[in-house]
Amino acid sequence: MVKLNSLKVDPVRQTEGIWFPWEQGVELKIARLGNPKFDARLRELVEEAKERGQKEPDAEAATVAAMAETVLTGWKGIEGEDGKPWRYTPQRALELLTDESLGDLYKFVLMKAAESAHFRMVEDQEAVGN
């Protein structure tokens, strides 16, 4: 048997994101896939595509665009070619998520965003070991 409280998701963690270490000191702030902001933005993108005359909008492109705005919500430790910190913007997040040479980053974000245990209430996170 499991206590119901141990299954509850923290609404702030799921929409604002939490930090995950990735590669070479880079940290990514990732929100839950399917959070309310993601769902709303995905619907907007699909509607916008339909308004532009697309009968069948590109679901994958809309999903990645919504992820760039609402799932990958920040990063630390990334710098541009000039050596200066690369500030997070949704457009830059989209660049990273769609760069084929950074496919591992996309897979990492998708994997972490889909794991509901990461977004449970804080006291339950400690029990999970995160």
Give an overview in words.
The structure is a single chain. This protein has one domain (18-128). It has 130 residues and is mainly alpha-helical. A three-stranded antiparallel beta sheet has the order 1-2-3. It has six helices and three strands, in the order αββααβααα. α3 (59-70) crosses α4 (90-98). Residues 124-130 have low confidence and may be disordered. The protein is 48% helix and 10% strand. It has helices at 11-16, 36-51, 59-70, 90-98, 103-114, 122-128, and strands at 18-21, 27-30, 72-76. β1 (18-21) and β2 (27-30) form a beta hairpin.
Question: What's the short story on this structure?
Answer:
This protein is mainly alpha-helical and 130 residues long.
Strand content of the residues, in percent? 5-15%
Number of helices: 6
Determine the N-to-C terminus distance.
22 Å
Model regions low in confidence, pLDDT < 50 over at least 5 residues: 124-130
| Structural class label | mainly alpha
Amount of helix: 40-55%
The number of domains is 1
- Secondary structure: number of strands: 3
Q: What overall geometry do the principal axes of the alpha carbons give?
A: flat
Biggest beta sheet attributes? 3 strands, antiparallel
Query: Numbering strands along the chain, what is their spatial order in the largest sheet?
Result: 1-2-3
Mean pLDDT: 89
Gyration radius (Cα, Å) is 16 Å
Write the element-wise H/E pattern from the N-terminal end onward.
HEEHHEHHH
